[in-house]
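Example for tutorial group B:
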């Protein structure tokens, strides 16, 4: 028994060390790439920003003057109105495909081919009510709190836009914070006690659709959906322009992760779709901490993992990488 336990510990330790090495290789390769092509990349970005930077600054100046010092209203427009318009515009197209099966260009890329074809109307109505409730009574007050907290760190609606380099650095920091906070809060909500009371609601959708990205118990929505996204701009005292861009990216990203379609030229949703299918795998956003903690081992043994890539053609990956035929008896 002791020998088996020791062997198990060694195997777990070896798996963790292997994950660390792979993470270091991935990060190190990225650093080397940036070091090799950084100057060229910077030159092209500066050339683009030099041509368009004045346009955005002039546009912001007009908005800033138009609101005549009503910075709070300006902040809410950028962090509530604009992200919600982006979220619902994107989801309107997806909901059209979910409810009507058209356009076929979208539905042919469905990940779980036998699900949501079409989506259950009653189940969808219930999800929409919950999503709207969360947005109005959880998200909105959280953004209000974020405004007042951000003011302690700086002026989120200052007259000068952040530089391109700083905006990109902020987005990087936001992404890292989201990966860490979402992964561990998400795993916490999978604890049997918390799962039964809170997180089970989100997992009613074993085959998710885009709009259920924020279909969750209000407590989970606050601590696992909102906090990982909101905390970065608050800590950095970010300008509303950076915060607006980040909120929009986060909402589009989580919508894609839940949409149920592996569409061409968009990030792969296979990772999170598999989480809804199996529950105990793939807890994070980018998968870095899942690789570190070994919570993607089963996923990496599946066809879904083989399909977890950017689709650069028009042939659905369920066709180019079909499921393994089941043996008939």
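The residue assignment follows.
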């Amino acid at each position: 028994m002791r020998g088996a336990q020791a062997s198990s510990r060694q195997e777990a330790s070896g798996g963790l060390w292997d994950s660390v090495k792979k993470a270091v290789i991935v990060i190190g390769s990225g650093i080397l790439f940036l070091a090799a092509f950084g100057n060229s990349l910077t030159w092209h970005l500066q050339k683009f920003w030099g041509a368009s930077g004045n346009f955005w600054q002039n546009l912001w100046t007009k908005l800033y003057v138009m609101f005549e010092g009503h910075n709070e209203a300006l902040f809410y427009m950028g962090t509530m109105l604009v992200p919600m318009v982006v979220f619902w515009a994107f989801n309107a197209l997806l909901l059209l495909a979910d409810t009507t099966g058209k356009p076929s260009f979208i539905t042919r890329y469905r990940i779980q081919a036998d699900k949501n074809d079409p989506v259950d109307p009653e189940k969808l109505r219930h999800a929409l009510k919950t999503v709207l409730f969360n947005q109005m009574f959880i998200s909105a007050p959280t953004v209000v709190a974020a405004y007042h907290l951000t003011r302690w760190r700086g002026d989120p609606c200052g007259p000068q836009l952040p530089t391109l380099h700083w905006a990109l650095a902020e987005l990087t920091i936001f992404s890292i914070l989201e990966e860490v906070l979402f992964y561990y809060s998400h795993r916490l909500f999978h604890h049997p006690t918390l799962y039964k009371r809170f997180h089970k609601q989100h997992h009613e959708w074993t085959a998710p659709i885009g709009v259920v990205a924020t279909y969750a118990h209000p407590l989970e929505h606050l601590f696992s959906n909102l906090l990982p996204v909101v905390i970065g701009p608050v800590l950095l005292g970010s300008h509303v322009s950076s915060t607006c861009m980040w909120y929009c990216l986060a909402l589009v990203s989580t919508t894609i992760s839940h949409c149920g379609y592996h569409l061409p030229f968009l990030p792969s949703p296979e990772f999170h779709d598999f989480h809804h299918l199996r529950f105990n795998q793939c807890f994070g956003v980018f998968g870095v901490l899942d690789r570190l903690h070994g919570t993607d081992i089963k996923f990496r043994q599946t066809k879904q993992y083989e399909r977890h890539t950017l689709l650069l053609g028009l042939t659905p990956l369920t066709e180019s990488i079909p499921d393994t035929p089941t043996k008939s008896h």
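The chain has a mean pLDDT of 88. Compare this with the pattern of hydrophobic and polar residues in the output above.
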